[in-house]
Amino acid sequence: MDAAYLRRLLYPPVRAFRTQRLDVGDGHNLHIEECGRHDGLPVVTLHGGPGGGISPALRRFFDPERYRVILFDQRGCGRSTPHASLRANTTQDLIDDIERIRELMGVDKWIVFGGSWGATLALAYAQQHPERCLGLVLRGIFTCSQIELDWFYKQGANMLFPDAWDRLVNPLANTERDDIVRAYYERLTEPDVVRRRPDALAWARWESALISLAGDPSAPLADPIRADALARLETHYFQHKGFFDYDGQILDQTERLKDIPGVIVQGRYDVVTPPRTAWSLARSWPKARLQLIGDAGHAAGEPGVVDALVRATDAFADQLG
User: Fold this and answer.
1) pLDDT on residue 213
2) Which of 42, 219, 267, 293 has the most CB atoms lying inside 10 A of its own CB?
3) Domain end: 241, 263, 289, which one?
């Protein structure tokens, strides 16, 4: 095969050169780490969920010889504390945290990289602070609209994965099944972490069953601590419609992105965040380039998605130095 057609791989594992804590008020303390070059092109990486947390793999989408990669665990998840806390945890709080981190790091402008909920947050941040964004690299577009939530938790994805859907709804009473998000939100606000654990795992397993085109749809999300944060924060945000002012806000305000270049990477067979949203976003954002990956679902680690994301970050490094 011609080398030009070989897919790019993740960069080799890289260690963080600095980790620190940031008190952002409201009782929240964030875990932040940096890797790559101290004087490299700055990029902030926004993880998914809400509540997913960062991982070492997220460092590897960037050339460590050219980038200064800044990652952090959002409120309530990963190594940020308090764990799984819903208090003072809204989209606006997270946007304000990103700005606090930018100021702490002494960065004037940066690239914003995010997938799934990380793409939601990246878009919301860029719409509030377009002057701080050199570019956006986004994967698996999700805008927390009602139609997207209904697809995944009401009618849509359940038609493709009836077995996984049954595992999600079986713990619920018949009276709870008309509103899956509300039912699990009410269950997961139970203060006792042990008592809410079965519901947290049931919620997290539904998402993990659908995330990868090549994965095992019966494979559970094994870590109950991570599942607790993911389930509590997702139901908290989804029950409150992402804490946006109105339904469809992100797509309605793409005019605010008009001067920001972007790359959108979307799996053609993504059943968690179906491609229609990415298509709509690209059509209303002239400086964005959409890449539909024909053999990929939602997961960031699928080969075609990795290839497109690494090529996108390399291209920004080529352009911006």
Assistant:
1) 74
2) 267
3) 241
Name the active-site residue from 116, 145, 208, 212.
116
Catalytic residue among 28, 208, 298, 307: 298
**From CA 257, how far away is CA 288, in angstroms rounded?**
9
Q: Has 116 been annotated as catalytic? A: yes
Number of domains within the chain:
2
Mean pLDDT of the region 53-78: 97
**151 and 130 in one domain?**
no
Annotated active-site residue 318? The verdict is: no
**85 lies in the same domain as 59:** yes
Element of type H or E holding 186:
helix 180-188
Q: 278, 284 in Cβ contact below 8 A? A: no
What's the pLDDT tens digit per position in 142-193?
999 999 999 999 999 999 999 999 999 999 999 999 999 999 999 999 999 9
Q: Which of 63, 199, 228, 270 is catalytic?
A: 270
Which domain covers residue 207, as residue numbers? 146-241
> Which of 223, 241, 259 is the last residue before a domain boundary?
241
* Residue 270 appears among annotated catalytic residues: yes
